[in-house]
Amino acid sequence: MSRLSGKVAIITGAAQGMGAAHAKLFVEQGAKVILTDLNEEKGHAFATELGENAIFVKQNVTSEEDWATVIATAEEKFGPVNVLVNNAGITMAKNMLDMTLEEYRRIVDINQVSVFLGMKAVAASMMKAGSGSIVNISSMNGLVAGAVGYTDTKFAVRGMTKAAAINLAPMGIRVNSVHPGVIATPMVVQEDTKAAVEEFSKHIPLKRVAQPEEVSNMVLFLASDESSYSTGSEFIIDGGLTAQ
Fold it and tell me: What positions does the domain Ketoreductase occupy (predicted)?
């Protein structure tokens, strides 16, 4: 039996990279999926590729109005939402002393505020469904230091996950965070960073970067009923980096 049969899932930032990998696996496992992103061209094309059980909705994840539209569309097309994967996020490789307040707040809005908005917006739909699973994509930099802005927000996602898990548990809604390490997404393996990533991989205990599908398998587990007693927890996929 398909592991997500009968589930309706929203995945943000799903036009490419890890979000696309999650969406593909979810559809394969029987879910009906709403993909959201700002990239309309890639989003629509990918939803078409996935078939009738996937639709694309353009979304600014920092907008309450857009969240309301996404959830209304999901309910109209497929029914109440069972799963939310807060995947959308950005990073910026700047020293704190060189970063402007505007740049910092943009990272906070996209990486942190959007997660709050998504969890708050989807709760009522999940209550209609009778239960729900929220999977917040943090990072290994939600556990150890990295770039200013990115690290701050990924720590915040980890904390929000725990607080929200307590708030939403009485409603039958589980909330967990996933903490990927170095993943072979287009942003990471582009030509100008490829050599640096290959060099860094030598310091990973497993001696390689992860494929997006390896993160998707963890997200699938948390979205499914197989993880029915897991909430408020962090799940690390970093090849052993934070264990050192």
Answer: 7-186
Partners of 11 in beta bridges? 35, 85
DSSP string, 105-172: HHHHIIIIIHHHHHHHHHHHHHHHHT-EEEEEE--GGGTS--STTHHHHHHHHHHHHHHHHHHHGGGT
Q: What is the DSSP letter of 172?
A: T
Burial class (CB in 10 A: 0-12, 13-18, 19+), 21: buried
Which tens digits make up the pLDDT trace of 20-37? 999 999 999 999 999 999
Q: Is 88 inside a domain boundary?
A: yes
Instruction: Specify if 81 maps to a domain.
Output: yes
CATH number, domain containing residue 227: 3.40.50.720
What positions carry a catalytic annotation? 150
Which three-class secondary structure state does DSSP give residue 11? strand
Q: Find the domain containing 98 and state its range.
A: 8-237
Global pTM value: 0.96
Q: Is residue 57 part of a domain?
A: yes
Count of the separate structural domains present in the chain: 1
Q: What are phi and psi of 219, to 5 degrees?
A: -60, -40
Per-residue pLDDT tens digits for 89-147: 998 888 999 999 999 999 999 999 999 999 999 999 999 999 999 999 999 999 999 99
